[in-house]
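Sharing a chain and its predicted structure for anyone who wants a worked example. Both blocks are below, sequence first, tokens second.
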Amino acid sequence: MINVYLAGSGSFGLAAAEAIVEDGHALAGVCSPAEGRRGGRDPLALYCERTGTPWTDVDRLTPDHVPDGVDLIYTAHSHAFVGRRTRARAPLALGYHPSLLPLHRGRDAVKWQSRLGERVTGGTIYHLTDRVDGGPIALQEHVIVPGGMKASHLWSDYLFPLGIRLTREAVALAADPAQVPIRPQNDKLATWEPSFDSAPVYRPELLELTAG
């Protein structure tokens, strides 16, 4: 059993929390929005209220949010930034991204893969770093999907369940951090898609990928 601090949101964050606990691990704390995307309480926040799990509502985690004794900081559909000092509060900091990184970095990876009609996609567990979606890969698995899939179906039928399965595997591996793979992403192959519903984020380090 390990102690996990979870940053997440929505139904995926809820499913990740439930999977972690079902597998015999402990949630040392949770960060999620108070309000869900469609109004009302966020499902992960409701889970914490129901189970008595320590919860906080922040956009940026700080070291003070992560209690002593945490073995893994894990992000599951979270847009909260996890800085270097916060990551240092645990031996490992991992997150799930619904694409085959380094392809489709960014918060709307599923929508872009649907819009581009991609038939081969997948999910990635990666090590959190200061680079958004740019940390080394721990686990990765591809899936072949039917053509013309709507983003909602691509997510619910393929990348959501894949993400939960990879989450279970990653948390199990985190019991021995030395066993968690660290494979650097190939930045020369990276793509970054803007969000559909928010202003572009200025990330100067990404400009280096297209320089020259």
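Comments welcome. The longest strand covers residues 120-127.
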